[in-house]
């Protein structure tokens, strides 16, 4: 009798908040009237079995680690899965920090009409992003190795100029005078040089894989036509943004990347300060780097009538690069949302 009643109550669930974890998950389910039907922890092996026994319902999950995996798996069972930024869910936590309170807050937040959701990424998208994250990690490691090598070589009077050519020249100088250096120092420096070359080789391999994916993706190729966007940036944007129509406008997309001014207004007095730097810092950095390259080219072309060149006459270069990155992000959104190719206009960038 109790089993029949329990089964009947579970069939009344329309919305569930699922708090993810490594081993113990927390479920908070309500019916159409908002009454709590189920509030219980689940072990990892019980999650799919539990949701397979439910009728199709709305499931809210915080967009955190493993969220996209569970979003795909639960979606296969016929459920509607909505991922939400954890920062937006936090406002619905009543008091304290427990798994049950978090699951309840997620269940409440997913029903809000003004909530902003994150599209569930495919396995292919996550694979491409993993390449990007690995490349970014290796680039940082290469920078650390180069800085360490510069510092150690300077102790023996070998000064490396900036840039790749400077490092190569310093390594050649080290090989030329290594017989006069202490044996232990030579071994340490050889280890750094060897590791630096291994990391550089891995970066080249990953970039080739990213480029191959970029060439086979129509959306990524369209974005690469925008000045300041290359295969790396284009593939990162396409792999990150599953559905550009989730953003209401290009400005919303730029704001999501943290490229719009941060408002600090009160009492009817509007005040805009520096960019918010919210959202995806990796894509934001790539866009700013690309915009900086465009500005460098505009400076070299004295006859340039581009938008950036005109802005450079009255604004600092760093401010212009961020402004151009903002503009580039809006153009990228337009191409993705409208499925169009980039058409260059005179003075566009």
From TrEMBL:
GO terms for biological process: DNA transposition. It comes from the Bacteria. Residues 221-299 form the Transposase IS116/IS110/IS902 C-terminal domain. Pfam families: DEDD_Tnp_IS110, Transposase_20. One of its GO terms (molecular function) is transposase activity. Residues 16-156 form the Transposase IS110-like N-terminal domain. PANTHER family: PUTATIVE TRANSPOSASE FOR IS117-RELATED, TRANSPOSASE FOR INSERTION SEQUENCE ELEMENT IS1111A. This is Transposase.
């Amino acid at each position: 009798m109790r089993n029949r009643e329990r089964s009947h109550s579970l069939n009344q669930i329309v919305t569930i908040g699922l708090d993810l974890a490594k081993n113990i998950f927390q479920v908070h389910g309500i019916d159409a009237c908002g009454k709590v039907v189920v509030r219980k922890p689940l072990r990892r092996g019980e999650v799919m079995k539990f949701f397979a026994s439910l009728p199709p319902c709305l499931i809210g999950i915080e967009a955190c680690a493993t969220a996209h995996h569970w979003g795909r798996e639960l979606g296969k069972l016929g459920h509607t899965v909505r991922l939400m930024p954890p920062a937006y869910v936090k406002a619905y936590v009543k008091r304290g920090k427990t798994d049950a309170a978090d699951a309840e807050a997620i269940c409440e937040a997913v029903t809000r009409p003004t909530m902003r959701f994150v599209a569930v990424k495919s396995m292919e998208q996550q694979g491409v992003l993993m390449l990007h994250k690995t490349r970014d990690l290796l680039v940082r490691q290469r920078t650390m190795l180069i800085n360490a090598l510069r510092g150690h070589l300077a102790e023996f009077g070998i000064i490396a100029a900036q840039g790749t050519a400077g490092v190569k020249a310093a390594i050649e100088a080290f090989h030329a005078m290594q017989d006069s250096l202490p044996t232990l120092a030579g071994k340490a420096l050889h280890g750094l040089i060897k590791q630096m070359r291994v990391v550089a080789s891995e970066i080249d391999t990953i970039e080739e894989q990213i480029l191959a994916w970029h060439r086979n993706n129509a959306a990524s190729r369209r974005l690469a036509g925008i000045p300041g966007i290359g295969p790396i940036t284009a593939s990162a944007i396409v792999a990150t943004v599953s559905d550009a129509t989730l953003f209401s406008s290009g400005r919303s997309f730029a704001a999501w990347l943290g490229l719009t001014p941060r408002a600090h207004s009160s009492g009817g007095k509007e005040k805009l300060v520096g960019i918010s730097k919210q959202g995806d810092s990796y894509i934001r950095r790539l866009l700013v780097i690309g915009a900086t390259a465009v500005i460098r080219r505009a400076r070299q072309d004295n006859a340039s009538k581009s938008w950036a060149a005109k802005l450079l006459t009255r604004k600092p270069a760093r401010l212009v690069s961020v402004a151009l990155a903002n503009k580039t992000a809006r153009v990228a959104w337009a191409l993705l949302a409208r499925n169009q190719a980039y058409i260059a206009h005179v003075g566009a960038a």
